[in-house]
Amino acid sequence: MNVYGRRLLINRLGIGVSMIAMAFGLAALMWILWTLFSRGFAALSWDFFTHDTPAPGSAAGGLRNAIVGSLLIVGLTTGVSTPIGILAGIYLAEFGDTSKFAASTRFVTDIMLSAPSIVIGLFVYALMVVTLGGFSGWAGSVALSLIAIPVVVRTTENMLRLVPASLREAAFAVGAPRWQVSLKVSLRSVRAGVVTGILLAIARVTGETAPLLFTALNNQFFSTDMSQPMGNLPVVIFQFAMSPYDNWVHLAWGGALLIALLVLAINVGARLLFRQTNTP
Length: 280
Description:
12 helices; MetI-like fold; mainly alpha; 0% strand; 280 residues; single chain
């Protein structure tokens, strides 16, 4: 067998192994989704969205308090992490090329990107819960923000580095100051990529359980007071899935499906948005 034939054989073997691995991965994913959808859809009803979590052994109930609590915590997280992450990414890409402070910021960002979420939860527990004397929705939002901010920072910086230098030079040539070039030229040209990063950060923190166990904890009753323990879907799913009550397990499947649908919608929306901007 000549060199060409050997390379062709190796190429076909590599493609075949890749296809088999992809098939196994897709089969496992479809199995998980089928189990989640088949068990979760049965729990979705009007009571699921309008009633609070039931007492042990109760035959009725829903997850209204957990859904509202998750929306409040994730909404505040988005409001905190988005401006901080975008501004930090702009600084790193536009102003901090040779700065030691920027290099240190990138190093810390990389560490936080790879840090386990339970470590961040313990950090916020020691910083806020122990100091302030109680669990709260504020502490949960801080913990999730520490997870989301590095994602937004890294995405914003990487997208801004894709902007051609000629675009910036053209803006400088007409007398625009650097801050206007950064905000109105560079950032605007990659806004879809930055929005994609924000959506992916939201998708990541939506299902985080460990940080909320140490910060927001849970609340069986409906509450919008962020200074008190607050119900949230990840913790409720964690607690109900291990309970001996069939009704609680039933609700846990419904909550898991709700989070899966939300994360799926965010990911699909981000990919569609990114694909449209790349269409000539």
